[in-house]
Amino acid sequence: MSEHLPTVVTSSREISADAETIFELIADPTQQPRWDGNDNLAEAAAGQRVRGAGAVFATTLTMGAVRQNRVTEFEEGRLIAWLPSEPGQPPAGHLWRWELEPLGNGRTLVSHTYDWSALTDENRLVRARATTADRLRASLDRLAAIAESL
């Protein structure tokens, strides 16, 4: 692994919508393919809205593989993070985190982080390295477009 590449990347932006509206789009896996800037998510079954740490939700990737996502951090309306894995397997060591900070007047600062510092699966390193702040920003921009239209 190159020591020059950051293994934790973050992008942030202000969205003209309240934190509750934005959080609902993130915490409901059926909404995630709508705003995924990596174009990696195809679908998720209904009824998996995350309500706390320890929850597990499943998503289907565009290539057809299923990922189980274990929620490791959760604060309703403010914070959610998860570790993806193949079904029945331990997490591969990469984490997706969303943090929302209400700014008042219906505005929210949203930060999206991808942390692959503990990634152990050599097959995922190329994709991890390609997940840059610009890719995270694409998800933020799509999320903003949806949230601001509601």
TrEMBL record:
It comes from Pseudonocardia ammonioxydans. This is Uncharacterized conserved protein YndB, AHSA1/START domain. It holds the Pfam family Polyketide_cyc2. It comes from the Bacteria.
